[in-house]
């Protein structure tokens, strides 16, 4: 079902939802199905007329970008590099499957902050330390988040981390099915946007 980009029956165009896909750039720690599920989530986001936002990197974010582009969607990447040449030559990162790459020049930690802030929600698939960094930034920002269970790495540890941190579960939902996870994340975004109507 495409996103409704018009508000309250008038002709004011509304921006599309932007969903950040956060996950492992190196997928050897991920479950066997993680890359396939990342591609599926990218495709589903595109089919719902939303935008995929990635860290313009390899692995899980790359597969989600591929899924989105092959479904005719829009993909925006935020690179840790300051230029296209540094992105390719110094960071060894891909350009494929992105409509637009913003060269932040803020290395990984700075890029992660801009990446999660630029999205309406963050979905975590597998992941390592950088993914954990993106998750905790979004958690502190009280941003809607979805975690794909069974994808390996950090995503399968986050329930325990949240429990051990004694800060509540925030606006985080957990699912092992990509479509169900995306559905829950969209509900969280819509709930947030109710605040605009008050």
Measured between the Cα atoms of the first and last residue, the distance is 26 Å
CATH class division:
Alpha Beta
Shape: globular
The assigned structural class equals alpha/beta
The CATH architecture assignment turns out to be 3-Layer(aba) Sandwich
Largest sheet descriptor: 7 strands, parallel
Could you say what the CATH topology is called?
Rossmann fold
Number of helices: 7
What is the topology, as strand order, of the major beta sheet?
4-3-2-1-5-6-7
The overall number of domains is 1
Low-pLDDT ranges: none
Q: How much of the sequence is in beta strands? A: 15-25%
Helices and strands, in N-to-C order? EHEHEHEHEHEHEH
- Number of DSSP strands? 7
Let me know the average pLDDT: 94
In angstroms, what is the radius of gyration? 16 Å
Q: What percent of residues adopt helix (DSSP H or I)?
A: 40-55%
Structural overview:
It is a single chain. Helix 4 crosses helix 5. This protein has one domain: 3-Layer(aba) Sandwich (Rossmann fold). The mean pLDDT is 94. Helix content is 41%, strand content 17%. The protein is built from 7 helices and 7 strands. The chain has a 7-stranded parallel beta sheet, with helices on both faces. The two termini are 26 Å apart. It is an alpha/beta fold. The radius of gyration is 16 Å and the shape is globular. The longest helix is centred in the C-terminal third of the chain and has 20 residues.
Task: Give descriptors for this structure.
198 residues, Rossmann fold, alpha/beta, 41% helix, 7 helices, 7-stranded parallel sheet
Furnish the topology, listing elements before pairings.
Blueprint: E1 18-23, H1 34-47, E2 51-54, H2 60-70, E3 74-79, H3 84-89, E4 100-103, H4 107-117, E5 121-125, H5 129-140, E6 145-148, H6 158-165, E7 172-175, H7 178-197
Parallel strand pairs: 1-2, 1-5, 2-3, 3-4, 5-6, 6-7
Helix pairs in contact: 1-2, 4-5
